[in-house]
Design goal:
Blueprint: H1 9-25, E1 35-40, E2 45-48, E3 64-67, E4 72-74, H2 83-92, E5 98-102, H3 105-112, H4 122-127, E6 134-135, H5 144-153, E7 160-163, E8 167-172, H6 175-198, H7 206-226
Parallel strand pairs: 6-7
Antiparallel strand pairs: 1-2, 1-5, 2-3, 3-4, 5-8, 7-8
Helix pairs in contact: 1-6, 2-5, 3-6
The chain binds zinc ion.
Length: 236
Amino acid sequence: MSSLDIPGLDALKAEVCALHAELLRWGLVAWTSGNVSARVPGHELMVIKPSGVSYDDLTPDKMIVADLDGNLVEGTLSPSSDTAAHAYVYRNMPEVGGVVHTHSPYATAWSAVAQPIPCAITAMGDEFGDDIPVGPFALIGDDSIGQGIVSTLKGHRSPAVLMRQHGVFTIGKNAKAAVKAAVMCEDVARTVHLARQLGPVARLDQADIDKLYDRYQNVYGQQAAQQPIEPQGVEA
Ligand SMILES: [Zn+2]
């Protein structure tokens, strides 16, 4: 039980803990290299993974509560080394309720060659509404990763950014939506990569991308985002 008097905080810790199993289930992480966080609604706080703990050993009570400057508020373990980047996103994008970071292999391969993933299939039009952009190269240790995420995604439809020669950060209105974006980013990164082995890949017409994005976000997106988290996973 949390010692902080915040209704729903224990449930949020359990949700963020369970979402880490999705990173494994969808093949987005090796060892302990990915993390999920969630904003604590109504508070200047977030829940995030502890650093270096195996996904099998994660439990809700091991989850960290940090403030939006990345300082530890509750928890006995050290927060994820990516906490500063997550905190920067929450400070600068008030609409964001969840952040995910992975080094998922296909998407990270695109980041390694600093190429945006072209919006070449309808699934990308639906979820991303554009190419998946490349963000700047930045080293861990200060706000530069967070600044790169925010400067790339602010005003962009895509909830995913390929941080150059590093990996993927995704955002969402809640943690589950950010995990979904991370799963979809890897899926389309793989598909468009495979397509390029077969021949040239053409971006969809912008008018078609606009139609796909509008329909998906207004018909499917809001319904999906309003569903409560299910511990067994993301719906099909
Ligand atoms: Zn990383």
